[in-house]
Amino acid sequence: MEKKLSVVGKNVIKKDAFEKVTGKTVFSADLDMEDMLYGAVLRSTVPAAVIKNIDTSKARALEGVESVLTAKNIPGRNAVGIILKDEPILVEDKIRRIGDAIAIVAAKTEETAQEALSLIDVTYEEIEPIFTFDRAIQEDSPNIHGITNVLQTKHLRHGDVRAGFEKCDVIVEHTYKTSMLSHMFIEPEAGLATYENGMITIYSSTQNPHFDRGEVAAMMAFPQNKVRSVQMTTGGGFGGKLDISVQCHAALLAYNTKKPVKMVRKRTESAMVSSKRHPMTIHARTGATKEGKLMAMEVTMRGDTGAYASYGPAVITRAMVHCTGPYVIPNVSIDATFVYTNNPMAGAFRGFGVPQVALVHEGQIEALAKELSMDSVALRLINLQHPGAETSTGQKLGSDVGLETCISQVLSKRKELDGKEGD
Amino acid sequence: MKKIMIRFTLNGEKYEREVFPNMRVLDFLRNEMGMRSVKEGCSEGECGACTVIYNGRAVTSCTMLAGQIDGGEIITLEGLSNKGELDVLQQSFMEEGAVQCGYCTPGMILSAKALLMHNPTPTHDEVRRAISGNLCRCTGYVKIVKAIEMASQKIAQE
Amino acid sequence: MIRQGKGIACMWYGVGNTGLPNPAGAFVEVLSDASVNLMVGCADIGQGSTTVMAQIAAEELGVRYEDVNVTSADSAVTPEGGATSASRQTFISGNATKKACQMAKQTLAEVAAEVLQVSRERLKFENRQIYDMDNLECKLSYRELMGEMAKRGRLALGQGYYNPNTTMLDPDTMQGSPFEIYSYAATMVTVEVNTDTGRIELKEVISAHDVGRAINKRMVEAQIEGGCAMGQGFAILEKVIVENGKILNPQFSKYLIPTALDMPDIYPIVVESNAQAGPFGAKGVGEPALIPIIPAIVNAVEDAIGVHFYELPITPTDVIRELYHQQKLYEGIE
């Protein structure tokens, strides 16, 4: 017997709505504390270089400047990253993208902090930048990290794709390309950090305060319980506020000045530095019998994760696992390679690669329908996942597959609207 | 630069303040007047998060200088419910679920308020046009438009 | 000339992540006046997870939505919440919240059973009352129960965490169970393509989503509507332009996103398949909301002008270029 629900399913008014419609909600940039300083970041203007020297003496001498810090001021681990710790909090030697953080400043006013940045002299030697997938995988290309520019290569194998294609009467083959996209949440990243009684507290705009705690603790070589991470009301994220933004920099400045430090990104800094959606190139071959039964799919995917991995490895896996779409295909072979380049960092963005592959499975279905002279909805219905069906990873689906209902409801709504228009 | 004296009305109260004439109205309202509902989103007059009502019109306060508001009248979101009662727009934004992250909400409500002040019974397209300078990345604007239409109906019934 | 086209597309989306451990936790305390403190790690980024957690807790404990106060995403107070990403929080933090409430309820039920002299299994918690489901007259109000709890020196505390049941994928073949459950959706769009200007206008969207169970239907609709806007940007508007590693359009004046004037009529449809593993049957909708509209737009444009675009976004220039090629092909020049 299904339990009668009294609160679940109700359109209650959201807990945060009153504060938000009255303008009382405190976002990170709205925080103010006594003796508060303003932090700012000196960022690289070149995509690939080796730092030879950073001279901060003029910036330090500027009145109103309380702290100028570089990599050598980091007590613990100078690396952050959601899956791989490959991004320096402050660059020690190698610049890997435009926007890499080189030095940070805390000053009494925002203007002074900005002026101090302009007084820092960085000497570097530029090296060959890599901007394309093809250049990244060449043997003689410089390595952005470690010994290879390949972030990951993965293979999915299900059934026997060659035998599958042999049973096909029609095969379609296309290459799909998607662009780099920006989250453009309306609130730029911001945060404030304090250091009191041996404890660092960070208030920030974030999608994962517990992750931020771990990264700050590792940077400071603090136990995790000496770092408190509080999410302030966050003005949208869509995946772009999962990476560390201001948290480590503000914490390091607060620790060194013993004063609260606020950091607020301007829109351009936010859009230059935050992660982006992975641009992807996907080549797909899909085959079906003349009755419209999907038999085989073969795919190669290429992605550019830019200078740092961020959520890249998760994007690869999700894209591959979802590549068939919600259809049963008994024979599947997918090869995916993502590389590092000196382009902006790509990471999590609403859908983790699945929007990209949705273009592929839905494009292929349409192409096959045309070849088969079938209605594309009918072709979908023949191949739809159903309770108990097997996915391309060999997983057996449970009873909760509601796709057929989704399609029929969409079609009946269409009919209803057409009826109205016809009236 | 020399400070100048400006006189203006903010949320129904008269003020006199000395300001640098080149200070942005956005910074003036946030930092000098404590109006923290005025949000900075883009700094170039594109996103509308910093929208305020100036002399009855919705404007972006990041593209105005403090000197310009001398003699003028400004309304921020704080001014809509300052008599302890929610404005009908605030009420309908809550009831229709028109608020998600909330960062665009102050500017969005003020653009809607400026519209309803001049045109209490706008058409669907007039509503959409009035908020077309306010970007929202969460809602797809659907429930925002609905909330404004609901507020307009409530006003008509009163 | 204006040409109209319709396109449909489907999608699936795994919830409860990728063969890796993926836990989130919750703490709960029912106070002596029967109000509730819920502490969840889950970060609300505007989508409404705090509201969802309060609804789940209220339902499970049998109190009102207003009775639940939520503290979220503060590492000194709340347990690990994991990321607010991958459409996971309703499912994972929702399950954690439900489990925390079940633990508190166990203590409450022990005391209620003692007072009402019935077995614990027969107790029902609903609408601020605890009663014998076989004898509705045999009941206690929540406040009475909390009074009995106080007399006995008992506290109604609960903690819970949830980690989805997944398996590590085989490293060579990626075979395994990467997600505990899957959300599904189908979307149909109507577009108008202006063959003179190349402009694509989205007129109507019908988007049906199998979310398992809508904890809050209006918030599910809001996700679908927001996803339609962002998906429209993906399909026909947005692109970060990078030259020599530099982003040339890092601002709203050069990186255009949809405005209120770009929005079509949207008809969201909520389908409930009741996921066994989800809290009250819920899955996730945050990302699914974005996905199917993108290929649906591509397919609708093809329906309108006979060209399937393989590269996104489809700009007016792309449309004009392809129509020009089409015309040349038709005239036999190419």
UniProtKB/TrEMBL annotation, chain A:
Highest taxon of source: Bacteria
InterPro entries, per the entry: Ald_Oxase/Xan_DH_a/b (IPR000674), Ald_Oxase/Xan_DH_a/b_sf (IPR036856), Ald_Oxase/xanthine_DH-like (IPR016208), AldOxase/xan_DH_MoCoBD1 (IPR008274), AldOxase/xan_DH_Mopterin-bd_sf (IPR037165)
Domain Aldehyde oxidase/xanthine dehydrogenase a/b hammerhead: from-to ranges: 22-128
One Gene Ontology MF term: iron ion binding
Chain segments annotated as coiled-coil in the UniProt record: none
Gene3D superfamilies assigned: Aldehyde oxidase/xanthine dehydrogenase, a/b hammerhead (3.90.1170.50), Aldehyde oxidase/xanthine dehydrogenase, molybdopterin binding domain (3.30.365.10)
Pfam family, one: MoCoBD_1
PANTHER family in UniProt: XANTHINE DEHYDROGENASE (PTHR11908), XANTHINE DEHYDROGENASE SUBUNIT D-RELATED (PTHR11908:SF157)
Protein name: Aldehyde oxidase and xanthine dehydrogenase, a/b hammerhead domain
Originating species: Hespellia stercorisuis DSM 15480
High-level lineage: Bacteria, Bacillati, Bacillota, Clostridia, Lachnospirales
From TrEMBL, chain B:
Keyword S-adenosyl-L-methionine: no
Sequence ranges assigned to domain 2Fe-2S ferredoxin-type in this UniProt record: 4-80
Highest taxon in the source lineage: Bacteria
Pfam families per the UniProt record, alphabetical: Fer2 (PF00111), Fer2_2 (PF01799)
Gene Ontology MF, one: oxidoreductase activity
Keywords from the UniProt entry: 2Fe-2S, Iron, Iron-sulfur, Metal-binding, Oxidoreductase
Protein name: Purine hydroxylase delta subunit apoprotein
Source organism: Hespellia stercorisuis DSM 15480
UniProtKB/TrEMBL annotation, chain C:
One Gene Ontology MF term: oxidoreductase activity
Domain Aldehyde oxidase/xanthine dehydrogenase second molybdopterin binding, first and last residues per copy: 3-264
Signal peptide: none
Name of the featured protein: Molybdopterin-binding domain of aldehyde dehydrogenase
Species classification: Bacteria, Bacillati, Bacillota, Clostridia, Lachnospirales
